[in-house]
Specification:
six-stranded mixed β-sheet; eight-stranded mixed β-sheet; 266 residues; 38% helix; alpha/beta; 11 helices
């Protein structure tokens, strides 16, 4: 039988609003495995932040992290790819964000780093359940950044972030993951790129890849997969990209309903 993959976003898809995996969603993962569909987790989170959830999600193999910029095995650490920002572009984003007085959070292969703590970085740490380290951001840019997050209160970021998006969108992949976070990645990076590279390595046909997501950084993945389901509470762009939308109901069990739908279709 052809190998099948279920590529699953974490925040607001597998994880509920409380950042926990509900019993219904955990059973849905088991149902996928029982049906011969291998779960693969694809998140904007850092690889090191994702793999620590294995006791909750069950076994992990390949992980698509940093919104597709990194594809790395959870057990062997084999890396399929890592797309980093060009140093000059990263430094230019730094300069622009400092002019706008925005908080910066950077993803590097060694972890997540900030140059100063502020309210925005504390909010990020609480949301990600992972505290950034302090580091030399210029030095990190020289050795390759996976992404840069800029954050501030939504009313402030709405103006400054849009200006920065306009300035860099022709050179970098720019995506709004929250109202208070805009992210900058290599122009080669998105979740669909990561999923396609993994499917090619594992010799999995596109039509045997299912995708589940809710956000703006899931759009390319939902559009690429052979079958995809957006969460009912998800972003309008995710709804438009997906083949189907999960039935209405509590957000913490939307993924379970999406799996029911996928298994019925598949």
């Amino acid at each position: 039988m052809n190998r099948r993959l279920a590529v699953i976003d974490l925040d607001a898809t597998l994880f509920g609003p409380n950042k926990q995996v509900s019993p219904e969603n955990r059973r849905a993962l088991d149902r996928l495995r029982e049906a011969g569909v291998e779960p693969v987790f694809a998140s904007g989170r850092h690889h090191l932040n994702i793999v620590r959830f294995a006791p909750v999600t069950g076994p992990m193999s390949w992980v698509i992290s940093t919104s597709g910029a990194v594809v790395r095995h959870a057990v062997t650490d084999e890396q399929l790819h890592e797309f980093t920002l060009p140093e000059a572009d990263a430094l230019e984003v730094y300069e622009a964000s400092r002019r706008e007085k925005l908080a910066m959070i950077v993803y590097h292969r060694d972890g997540i780093f900030i140059d100063a703590e502020c309210e925005a970085t504390r909010v990020y740490a609480a949301r990600a359940s992972w505290k950034p380290q302090h580091g030399d951001l210029a030095g990190l840019a020289a050795s390759g950044l996976q992404k840069i997050l800029l954050s501030e209160a939504p009313d402030i970021l709405a103006k400054a972030g849009l200006a920065l998006e306009s300035a860099f969108a022709s050179r970098l992949y720019v995506v709004w993951t929250e109202k208070d976070i805009v992210e900058f990645l290599s122009p080669h990076a998105n979740k669909a790129v990561g999923v396609e590279a993994l499917a090619r390595k594992l010799d999995v046909d596109r039509e045997n890849v299912w995708a589940f997501g809710d956000g703006n950084n899931d759009v390319e993945m939902l559009a690429w997969a052979g079958f995809s389901v957006a969460m009912a509470h998800g972003q309008p762009r995710a709804h438009r990209a997906a083949r189907a939308v999960s039935p209405a109901g509590p957000a913490e069990t939307a993924f379970a309903r999406a799996v029911d739908l996928a298994l019925a279709e598949g």
